[in-house]
Amino acid sequence: METVDILIKNSNELITLKGPNKPRKNKNMSNIGIIRNGDLAINDGLIVDIGKKLNYKASKTIDAKGKTVMPGFVDPHTHLVFAGSREFELDMKLKGATYMEILKKGGGIKYTVNQTRKASNNLLLEESKKRLDSMLSYGTTTCEAKSGYGLDTKNELKILKINKKLNENHSVDIISTFLGAHAIPDNYSNHEYTKLIIEEMIPRVKDYAKFCDVFCERGVFTINQSKKILKAGKKNGLTPKIHADEIVNTGGASLAAEINAISADHLLRSSNSGLNKMAEKEVIGVLLPGTPFSLMMKEYVNARNMIDLGVPVALATDLNPNCWVESMQLMIQLACFNMNMTSAEAICAATFNASCAIGLNNYIGSLEKSKVADVIVLNCPNHKFIPYHFGINLVETIIKKGNLIKLKELTET
Ligand code: NIG
Ligand code: FE
């Protein structure tokens, strides 16, 4: 009998997400490949077998009877590295202040930029590591992380280098995005700052990021500026992503399709015509239900409509000082309760489609032979429990690249 490193036995539901290796849309988002009473064999960091009643000797056997086993969550949109906090904005939001009003009063992104510029590398590393530990304990095994709280070449590079260091030293894999175009820093016009991003920043940061992102929004970067920045990124090898139509519909969804962005994120105000263009080009719609939740808004994206239009949908936390959340389980809950997604669709959005949104679907996002063994065991009998039993952490075992993570060793949060 062959020996493997880890054998997971008898899971009540083994959610494989097996299927075509491209963004899942329409009905395909609901086919999450469940095997009842399934087993999973892991060796040398990879999934080597999957099925029922597997016959292996194992160095470690995990009894998953009555439990749910699935791929680790992939969080494809975070602003992981920042300093300080903005809990004082809560009262402003309670009194009805909008995101843009807070930003104009010197709060919001600019407040965090000041804190982040002042912070030492060590402080940023430590603070971000705590958040990564928390993400991992809630089952996230890979995430994307954006710069964007530097807004000058030196500080944007500082953040991207911290991403790199965290990626090298932490179990969670991190894919970096350059988001120099997150806000307009003081003493610059939009035009001058756009020029700086294109001519100075992108060439300097290009080896530290895989994606280039822009906050395309009324009062921040126009469609035209966003297009120029994303095109310059592309020329330097950075794949476009975009914060689109979060507050006002400026045509961000259409731009994402036009420039072949890998994803367009937020999309609360996007028109059907923009969404149709995204569907045609298979641009992934990354939905961030934590953002309207933290902004105390009543409106959420109608994900049902988006899925029916054929947009492949992913979910992410948007972890940032305005929306400080590390849990993809909560995103699934909000998506089901407020955005009309089914539990199966939300799980697909938080795993496989999320891996597509960061270009990693060849390696992660589903439990299939030869894929990386990023696996979580949830203390619940089936996938519907993930939205159903909310407010607690259902994840009890995490395996990253075939290594069993000891939860106790993660930073206590
Ligand atoms: O994706 N919208 C722009 N950026 C972030 C918020 C950043 C912040 O408020 O610090 C977002 O929601
Ligand atoms: Fe964001």
Strand-pairing-aware structural class? alpha/beta
CATH architecture of the largest domain: Alpha-Beta Barrel
Largest sheet: 8 strands, mixed
Shape: globular
* Estimated radius of gyration: 21 Å
In CATH, the homologous superfamily of the largest domain goes by the name Metal-dependent hydrolases
Number of domains: 2
Number of strands: 16
Question: How many angstroms separate the termini?
Answer: 42 Å
The proportion of residues forming helix, as a percent range, comes to: 25-40%
Description:
The strands form two sheets. Strands 1, 2, 3, 4, 5, 14, 15 and 16 form an eight-stranded mixed sheet that branches. An eight-stranded parallel sheet has the order 6-7-8-9-10-11-12-13. It has 413 residues and is α/β, with parallel strands linked by helices. The protein has helices at residues 89-94, 99-104, 108-118, 121-137, 153-169, 190-205, 223-235, 252-258, 272-281, 290-294, 303-308, 328-338, 343-350, 352-357, 385-388; strands at residues 3-15, 34-43, 46-52, 57-63, 68-71, 73-75, 140-146, 173-181, 211-216, 239-244, 263-266, 284-287, 313-315, 375-378, 395-400, 403-404. The protein contains 15 helices and 16 strands. The radius of gyration is 21 Å and the shape is globular. It starts with a strand and ends in a 9-residue tail after the last strand. The mean pLDDT is 96. The protein has two domains: 3-71 and 366-407, Urease, subunit C, domain 1, CATH 2.30.40.10; 74-356, TIM Barrel (Alpha-Beta Barrel), CATH 3.20.20. The longest helix is centred in the N-terminal third of the chain and has 17 residues, at 121-137. α4 (121-137) crosses α5, α6 runs parallel beside α7 and α8 runs parallel beside α9. It binds N-(iminomethyl)-L-glutamic acid (NIG) and fe (iii) ion (FE).
